[in-house]
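Sanity check

After download, print the first record. It should look like this:
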Amino acid sequence: MDTARAFTSGIHLCVVYDQTKFPRFKEGSSVILRNVIKKPDGVAVTSNTKVFPCAEVSVPEHIVNQAKNLLHPPPAPTKTVSEALNSPPKERVSIKGTITQEEATRQVFVREERVNVKNIYIEDATSKCKVALWRSFAEKDIRPGDYVHITDVVINTFRNEVSLTTTSKTKITKTDCPPEVKVKQAVSGCVDGENMTFLLEDDTILTMPLELVEVALPNVEKEEIESYVISCCNPMLSIRCTSKGSSVISIEFL
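Expected structure tokens:
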């Protein structure tokens, strides 16, 4: 049992190992401790420790808040994926981004215990990274295309690959994806039913509703859009795309 003891002058982490003494340590209670074990980061209460209730100790509010933050620290700062990957090893960070890929859950042995782990890949406007989801996080109901906020992951380097790993304090939540604007270079395009597909210079495919192209080309007839786009790919056509997650919501031809 971990508690934070607040004094008029500061705070200490207090780890209670003797379960019979748990009832003495309630939020707001005041106690006197004897025969504790002093540690670099606080004190330990064992079976040899004496716990005496006492009159209420008046503690300044800012010290009480420090004690609460010691036991329940706020989430690590949210960084871009690029900033997170360049953070010092083992530093806690939080990230936001779109899940672009997931691997199958597998089991590994950790201290002779069989543990689930699954890798996902998160991407934002700055970069892409692998996140290892350990234990219960491997079963989290998230999938490619979801925009997620992942808190309190740590930087890990293995075989020169920098990745992120969940911790006991990690929280994963789905959230609204903010609009993202990127300029893409198309080398060709074709109309496919109610969609239009562009072949980009990096050999990837960009698909969007044909109606977005119609809005971007108000002076071009629908049946002439494909030939018009191909004529503009000379050698490439610049397209400013606004997207949310994996969906394109508007475009502009530059």
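If your output differs, re-run the checksum step. Summary of this record's structure: The longest helix spans residues 61-71.
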